């Protein structure tokens, strides 16, 4: 996805990855709990391309990770 906020999307994905690993979850396990496919999650967590998520997915990710949504956007 080409966007003016490409770096913010990438940082978001890396935050998701950080908290997922901190919780000891694989991509497959996390994706299943969130209700998305493993391949979709891999795109979100990619450090080389911007990939956005819906608000529904965002809230579900934060819930499964047990963190406030704001934590996923902190630098």
List the main descriptive attributes of the protein structure presented here.
75 residues; mainly alpha; 4 helices; globular
Helix-strand blueprint:
Layout: H1 6-22, H2 27-34, H3 38-45, H4 55-65
Helix pairs in contact: 2-3
Q: Your description of this structure?
A:
The chain is built from four helices and no strands. Helix 2 (27-34) crosses helix 3 (38-45). It is 59% helix and 0% strand. The chain has helices at 6-22, 27-34, 38-45, 55-65. The two termini are 21 Å apart. The protein is mostly helical and 75 residues long. The protein is globular, with a radius of gyration of 11 Å.
Summarize the structure.
By secondary structure, the protein is mainly α. 59% of the residues lie in helices and 0% in strands.
How many individual β-strands?
0
Poorly predicted parts? none
Radius of gyration: 11 Å
Kindly state the percentage of residues in helix: 55-70%
Shape descriptor reads globular
Query: What is the mean pLDDT?
Result: 95
Q: In percent terms, what proportion of residues is strand?
A: under 5%
Question: N-to-C SSE series?
Answer: HHHH
Oligomer: single chain
Distance between the termini: 21 Å
**Structural class by sheet pairing and helices:** mainly alpha
